[in-house]
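Hello, quick one for you while I still have it in my head. A protein chain has come my way and I'm curious about its shape. Can you walk me through what the tokens say about the fold? No rush at all, and the record is pasted right below.
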Amino acid sequence: VHASGVGDLHLGKPFPAKYLAPAAQPEKHYVAGFHADAQTHDGFRFPRVPVKALFHQGPFHHWFESPKRKQPGPPGPSARKELAVLAVKAARGGKPIGWIVVDRPGPQTAKSIGLGSTLAQVQQAYGPVKLLPNPPSFGRDRCAVNIPGLKALWVYFKDCRAAKAGGGITRMSLWLPNKK
């Protein structure tokens, strides 16, 4: 995990071509869903990469917000297949990565902070941080900390009480603020 992404996945940059080659079958790795209060997200979870790399307002967002949408709630199987094709087309066309979610063990910062690291370890590595109560977005993430020196990186704990009691990081997210 570095200031602009995870490995070769970089915020604000296109998806690397190796993930989008026809032999990689990127349509099979398309993910779409909701977080927090029914906000959409979509992108890819590639094999052997323990992250979700997501668009900012990808095809699922546009499908969900469309007044022409015929079905309520999440897309059914045929709509998901269509959205996967649109997502691959968008990624191959250069649509950048807007958000990276680390929700599986493996990736760590240069100072060895990753899933399971405690608040004490974060503070030892990066200095004082502020715990921010947070409405749940993906679950197990009611307390957020922005990592000093890595302004795009946020780490999440089950809640602030758990963080203070030695509970480990449950999720890491890298995202750039929306430019209006």
About this structure: The radius of gyration is 17 Å. The beta strands are 5-6, 9-10, 30-35, 39-44, 51-54, 99-102, 132-133, 143-146, 153-157, 169-175. The longest helix spans residues 77-92. The chain has a mean pLDDT of 92.
